[in-house]
Amino acid sequence: MLRQKQQEENTVQPSNWYLIPGLGADERVFRGLSLPGPEVVLAWLQPQSPTEPLRQYAARLAEAVPPNQPCWLVGVSFGGLLALEVGRLRPLARVVLISSLANARQLPPLLKFGRATRLYRLVPFGLLPRLPRLAQWFFGARNGREYRLLARILRDTDPTFARWATRQLLHWDSTGVPPAVRLHGTHDRLLPAGHSPVDYALPGAGHFMIVSHAAALSRLLCEVATA
């Protein structure tokens, strides 16, 4: 009877959505989404130290996700890594990645070069808010509302947090992460999909598609939820 009960629990359709934004972002990027269930945005925590391991950080973030609740974990960009790491600790959760990586092997060549040479240590994160047009090109944000939102996100990004997150991204050990559904834009310049498998590709969408293609993503997420 116990085994049967466990099997029934594992087949319960998830309803709650836990959303993890990308580096420097917050709940603002999810405002255009329409999901079939309650939504909870997991707010970023401050790293306990400049070298806090990603798994330790994810364990603190996972405290907001009930361990016995079937749910969806949706991670955007760097938030996708956290969704996968939280997924290790919440086996009833199903992970969805938006503009993110399913494992460390999918890191783009430019970022692998930065890791190998350690050039990322020289990146002046404090200058990023002063380069909104360059960020606009990388993120694929269009002029108007999208550009203004991206500029505000850059302005509000904590350089110390950005430095920590970049190091975690480049040195991520993805061994044993759970499977995930991957949604990616075909014109993502920041984290291009390359030859890595993508479950749902959005033609013409860039890295900022959580905002620019919110309606299309909402439809796809509803489709994923009923699959």
UniProtKB/TrEMBL annotation:
Gene3D superfamilies, per the entry: alpha/beta hydrolase
Signal peptide location in the record? none
Cite the AB hydrolase-1 domain residue spans from the record: 48-218
Key words of the record: Hydrolase
Q: Which InterPro entries does the entry mention?
A: AB_hydrolase_1, AB_hydrolase_fold
Keyword Nucleotide-binding assigned? no
Task: Specify whether Transport is a keyword of the entry.
Answer: no
GO MF terms listed in the record are: hydrolase activity
Protein name listed in UniProt: Alpha/beta hydrolase
